[in-house]
Amino acid sequence: MIRAAIIGASGYTGGELARILSLHPEVELSVATSRNYAGKKMSQVYPHLTGIADIVCEDAPMAELTRRADIFFTAVPHQTAMAIVPELLEAGCKVIDLSADFRIDDPLVYEAWYQAHTAREYLAEAVYGLPEINRHNIAGARLVANPGCYPTSVILPLAPLLKNGLIDPDTIIADSKSGTSGAGRGAQVGTLFCEVTDGFRAYKVGEHRHTPEIEQELAKLAGRQLTISFTPHLVPMSRGILSTIYAKLTRDVDQQELSDLLMSFYQDEKFVRICRPGQFPATQYVRGSNYCDIGCKVDTRTGRVVLVSVIDNLVKGAAGQAVQNMNVVCGFAESLGLATVPLFP
Ligand SMILES: NC(=O)c1ccc[n+]([C@@H]2O[C@H](COP(=O)([O-])OP(=O)(O)OC[C@H]3O[C@@H](n4cnc5c(N)ncnc54)[C@H](OP(=O)(O)O)[C@@H]3O)[C@@H](O)[C@H]2O)c1
User: Fold this and answer.
1) Looking at domain 150-313, what is its CATH homologous superfamily?
2) What pLDDT score does 144 carry?
3) How large is the angle between the packed helices 149-163 and 210-222, nearest 10 degrees?
């Protein structure tokens, strides 16, 4: 048994971590932190966890907590994570960070999109935690940078095509739609019921902070620098992301060849499901699960490929992927504790 801590347990990803870890046979949740809910049980913060995660939230110094857990999930906002993670690492703990603080390799790029980085010395050793693409590096890591939700939904469908030179890397357009849990549990006007229901809108057009993360990881797959057009949208649902991605094909490809490529690239992956030709995924078929479902279409009229991917932003886009990374780091079977069947309808 390993002991796990959730820093930021009262947030949406923290709650989801508690739910998933309760199903993990090799993990005991030994620490859960929250400033606002200190002294309250997780089941008071999240009633669906009653009898499942009754651990009491606390607001204790990290120096004390490091003695009580082996692996830490930091499920806190960016900037907060970089203030906490160095102390955890120096105490000998492993860290899966769900924030953006250790995802960007180049501190100058991070600082251009976020703010000053106060733990730059840890960027070089942080491993980008997308297991399907990077699991050999994750295995020995002590600091895993868990990917963003939008980046997970964009990188997974594009990886086989970029690795095989099937698309022009300069022509990628990603159009993504997310449910409102992507913005966290903190009260904000933009995610109030009246602001979100009965309509949907684009936001942060051309300037969303996940853009440099997506470009960085796609560039590694393509073997050269690239830029993308990325437009996120907020849709009136609690969870789920659907990304529609377009790119120009570099040669004539037929539908069967494209489908076969995606299927063979991901044939050994438990959490990536490729739709049959002519079928496309939907968020309701991955809800609550760690799956990324992908559909594809060769648009012969325009010479473009259209990829459609879906994930649950709180699971494959955050907590589920974090547990998948923990499994790789700890040498457990990668799907341990993650066998949840999507909840439909
Ligand atoms: N939501 C998603 O779909 C998603 C997906 C991928 C990645 N992420 C990333 O995961 C992280 C957590 O996201 P979330 O959606 O769970 O956010 P959230 O619902 O807003 O929760 C944030 C958590 O961090 C704690 N916290 C906030 N400020 C803190 C501080 N200064 N010191 C200590 N604890 C602090 C909060 O608890 P108290 O205020 O009670 O201490 C709360 O438990 C973020 O970095 C986010 O970008 C989120």
Assistant:
1) Dihydrodipicolinate Reductase; domain 2 (3.30.360.10)
2) 98
3) 20
